[in-house]
Design goal:
Blueprint lengths: L2 H7 L2 E7 L6 H11 L8 H6 L6 H11 L6 H17 L2 E8 L1 H5 L5 H19 L2 E9 L4 H11 L8 E5 L11 H9 L3 E6 L5 H9 L5 E4 L7 H10 L2 E4 L1 H6 L11 H6 L3 E4 L4 H4 L3 H12 L3 H13 L5 H7 L1
Parallel strand pairs: 1-2, 2-3, 3-4, 4-5, 5-6, 6-7, 7-8
Helix pairs in contact: 5-7
This protein binds 6-chloro-9H-purine and zinc ion.
Family: Belongs to the metallo-dependent hydrolases superfamily. Adenosine and AMP deaminases family. Adenine deaminase type 2 subfamily.
EC number: 3.5.4.2
Cofactor: Zn(2+)
């Protein structure tokens, strides 16, 4: 079969997807209307035109503004459901979705509203779409340790609705150490631990995510190549990197797809996965990431198989489910 058809058809898992980053401009406008929220863009086209980013922060400003239309439980459900339909189209069998409660609780939306809406969509996906979906709660690293602890406290009544915690938002100046105590508490609670590191931040932040936070996977991690000893360690430990190629191009982490280091990371024996990050903002869902990466880096069917297998191996599903999918 031709490679594009193989990439489309092969079963896969997605491990790095911010559900708020799946909010398409059309849905932002529909929810704004439904909730009577005023937007600073006159039309869907004008909003989409604003999706031209120079770095992570220029994206985050628009991403947090987009999330302001989410107020009711149904809004969170409808957003997640729209993504889960795309996931099914892309032959995603399992997805671990990040959500950012502080983006909502800071606007007065109760934690309960967020998690109930998202959980309901995840439960429906399993029965109606055959897509397994879990939630990972992220702490915004530009906010304080105290705010992260408050968020963790608010989440405890819903402990069974999410499988782990992550760390996202602006990396520069917000090192993993800032959340050492929060992550220690989450570890005690038996939560899975992941962290964004080495996207815009230095390789040292990846080392600290491992040593200080005890992160089980590194989100992005592409700057690990700046520290050869770290690359060797990641390969030896089998630590997964959840790489997001289209995101990296849109946020200027690499100039163009030909210049992306994903092929190099694979050659180094790292457990690389491909993910969409914020697909509504970065020009495509998971299969689009696979297609553009394989085209630009001239990857083959063997690489496709490795990446799909890695996605299941690096997931937090049971060993029985892994055996079923791999
Ligand atoms: C994000 Cl690309 C990226 N990096 C860090 N935090 C994020 N939140 C949503 N997308
Ligand atoms: Zn991300």
């Amino acid at each position: 079969a031709r490679l594009p058809e193989l990439l489309q058809a092969m079963p896969k898992a997605e491990l790095h997807m911010h559900i708020e980053g799946s909010l398409e401009p059309e849905l932002i406008f529909a929810l704004a209307q439904r909730n009577g929220v005023a937007l600073s863009y006159p039309s869907v086209e004008d909003l989409r035109k604003a999706y031209a980013f120079t770095d992570l922060q220029s994206f985050l400003d628009i991403y947090y503004a987009g999330a302001s239309v989410l107020l009711k439980e149904d809004d969170f459900h409808d957003m997640a459901w729209a993504y889960l339909l795309k996931a099914q189209e892309d032959n995603i069998r399992h997805t671990e979705l990040f959500f950012d409660p502080q983006t909502h609780t800071d606007r007065g939306v109760p934690f309960e509203v967020v998690i109930k809406g998202l959980s309901r969509a995840c439960a429906r996906a399993k029965t109606e779409l055959g897509v397994s979906a879990s939630l990972i709660m992220c702490f915004l690293r530009h906010l304080s340790e105290e705010s992260a602890f408050e968020t963790l406290q608010a989440s405890l009544p819903y402990r069974e609705h999410f499988i782990g915690v992550g760390l996202d938002s602006g990396e520069r100046g917000n090192p993993p150490e800032k959340f050492a105590r929060v992550f220690a508490k989450c570890r005690e609670l038996g939560l899975h631990l992941v962290a964004h590191a080495g996207e815009e931040g230095p390789a040292a932040y990846i080392v600290d995510a491992l040593d200080v936070l005890h992160a089980e996977r590194i989100d992005h991690g592409v700057r690990c190549v700046e520290d050869p000893a770290l690359v060797e360690r990641l390969a030896k430990q089998g630590t997964a990197l959840t790489v997001c190629p289209l995101s990296n191009i849109k946020l200027c982490v690499f100039d163009k797809m030909d210049a992306h280091n994903l092929g190099h990371l694979l050659e180094q024996g790292l457990k690389v996965t491909i993910n969409s990050d914020d697909p509504a903002y970065f020009g495509g869902y998971l299969n689009q990431n696979f297609l553009e990466t394989f085209e630009a880096l001239d990857l083959d069917a063997q690489a496709a198989y490795t990446l799909a297998r890695n996605s299941f191996e690096a997931s937090f599903v049971s060993e029985a489910d892994k055996a079923r999918w791999i």
